[in-house]
Amino acid sequence: MNTLSYNTFSEAITYNRQLESVVERMSFPKSIWETPFSEVFNQNSSSESFTLAILKAFDENENFPKDLLSTFPLEAILSYLRSTHCYYLEKKLPEIEQTFFNLIADYKKTHPELVRISSLFIDYKQELTHHIQEEENILFPYIDYLIKAKNNRAYRLKYSNFFKDYYLEKLEESHEDVESSLTNIHQLIHSYAPKTSSVMPFRVFLLQMDFFEKDLNRHAMMEDLVMMPLAKALESKIK
Q1: Looking at residue 128, what is its pLDDT?
Q2: Would you state the pLDDT for residue 174?
Q3: For 137-162, what is the mean pLDDT?
Q4: Cα–Cα distances in angstroms (integers) from residue 146 to residues 23, 140, 153, 172, in the given order
Q5: Are 18 and 59 within 8 A, CB to CB?
Q6: Which carries the bigger pLDDT value, residue 69 or residue 111?
Q7: In the Cβ-directed half-sphere of 152, how many Cα atoms lie within 13 Å?
């Protein structure tokens, strides 16, 4: 049941602009953004419940719904996180990068500090991209294995040697370090704001970075507070 203060995607985005990127990554076309949720999901309560839970998870005006999200299948959580990674790498980061390099082209002569910011942004992009690729290539496939092995003893035995040295506790060690590093770089970029505050494109760039940082924080909560505990419980049963 929808307990939120909106009944369409358009209302959700009006309520909190941050949610526009969430709706985009879930591949709901703009043609249905004005359509009531009850019609969008054709009485499919599970799909509606999961979508509304995701909207709530990324709404900074709402408490993060850890307990609610933990009631959904791990497969659904993992699928959503994969779509978010794709959205970050293929849309959001390129958009922010384009804004910044347009800024560099127009203002680097009058604002040489932008060259230093450029280096920081490149570090930020590379570190986040590497982190996502590690999850996509190692962590997520391992969780896929756990899901498939849960009810399939033959599958579990077939791949047990390959995965015997993997443990979620070991694989998640780098999470906090990466999140902390990205936050530090973001703060360094902001430290240049007083010198470039008169440049409107720089303010646009900072706004994009701030929106992205908020999204990343909620994304990290999805991984750390929902996906990992569910996966660890499954791993414990299997191992």
Answers
A1: 92
A2: 59
A3: 83
A4: 29, 10, 11, 16
A5: yes
A6: 69
A7: 12
Counting other chains too, the contacts that 71-77 makes at CB distance below 8 Å and 24 or more residues apart are: 74/143, 74/147, 74/227, 74/230, 74/231, 74/234, 75/147, 76/50, 77/222, 77/226, 77/227, 77/230
**Rounded CA separation 46/15 (Å):** 23
Classify 143 in phi/psi space as left (phi over 0), alpha (psi -120 to 50) or beta. alpha
- The angle at the Cα of 50, spanning 11 to 140, to the nearest 5 degrees, equals 125
C-alpha distances (whole Å) from 51 to each of 40, 72, 77, 208 are 11, 11, 11, 24
Six-digit token pair at 139? 């962590």
Per-residue tokens: 144: 């896929």
Residue 158 CB contacts under 8 Å (≥ 6 apart), including other chains:
none
Please state the length of the chain: 239
Scanning the structure block, which residue is given the tokens 């940082």?
Answer: 213
Q: What is the mean pLDDT of residues 53-79?
A: 93
Residue with token string 């993992």: 78
